[in-house]
């Protein structure tokens, strides 16, 4: 009968639709697996890039052309002059040094411990100057990792306003030193929420206006460092 024929046609169409849906589901599973693999490979490449930059430093603030024709010797002398001879137990050996916009590798130290000493000493000394110019030392990292660390800008500003020491751990983990011990954050929003709940530091004795001026100066320094990191 015509009804049976219609039912048979519907059954055939359902079978065909089920096969097509099954094929689509298999393709979706395959694509999702490929996407996961691409994400893994991307993370691996980014990790390898940062490992390749492990001994590199990014120095910001030098005048154009001040390094002359021998940037390696210039950098070796600059490090000793700015950070002090006591910072380095032996001679600082630099493999390469160049301006960041030129197509050569950034300045690279032959020994990773030298890089660690330089960054640690720079933090201890605070604001550094060379030839009346403010200079800043940064670890050389990939653009992707730099963007991740930049997401903590607001958290860093809060740390400054609360007078809390902080640092970055590789790859993008914020370490905040508190009275009851360090606290670590991998999520910028979590860090901001936590820091906003902390009480403001008590005002220091003495001239409050001087304190406010110092606070504003610290904010300007933070903004300048943020701009320099983006270069």
From TrEMBL:
Annotated segments matching region Disordered: 192-231
Transmembrane segment boundaries: none
Origin: domain of life: Eukaryota
Coiled-coil portions: 7-34
Protein name: L1 transposable element RRM domain-containing protein
Keywords: Coiled coil
Keyword Kinase set for record: no
InterPro entries linked to this entry: L1_C, Transposase_22
Biased composition (Basic residues): 211-222
Originating species: Latimeria chalumnae
């Amino acid at each position: 009968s015509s009804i049976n024929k219609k039912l048979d046609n519907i059954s055939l169409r359902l079978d065909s639709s089920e096969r097509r849906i099954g094929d689509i589901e298999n393709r979706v599973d395959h694509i999702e697996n490929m996407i996961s693999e691409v994400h893994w490979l991307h993370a691996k490449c980014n990790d390898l890039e940062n490992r390749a930059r492990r001994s590199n430093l990014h120095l910001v603030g030098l005048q154009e052309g001040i390094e002359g024709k021998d940037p390696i010797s210039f950098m070796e002398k600059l490090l000793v002059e700015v950070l002090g001879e006591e910072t380095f137990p032996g001679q600082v050996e630099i493999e390469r040094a160049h301006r960041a916009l030129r197509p050569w590798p950034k300045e690279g130290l032959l020994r990773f411990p030298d890089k660690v000493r330089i960054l640690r000493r720079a933090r201890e000394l605070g604001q550094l100057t060379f030839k009346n110019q403010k200079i800043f030392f940064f670890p050389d990292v990939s653009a992707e990792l730099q963007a991740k660390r930049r997401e903590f800008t607001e958290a860093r500003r809060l740390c400054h306003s609360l007078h809390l020491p902080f640092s970055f751990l590789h790859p993008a983990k914020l370490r905040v030193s508190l009275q009851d011990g360090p606290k670590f954050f991998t999520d910028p929003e979590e860090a901001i929420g936590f820091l906003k709940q902390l009480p403001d530091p008590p005002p220091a004795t003495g001239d409050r206006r001087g304190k406010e001026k110092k606070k504003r100066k610290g904010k300007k320094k933070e903004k300048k460092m943020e701009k320099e990191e983006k270069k």
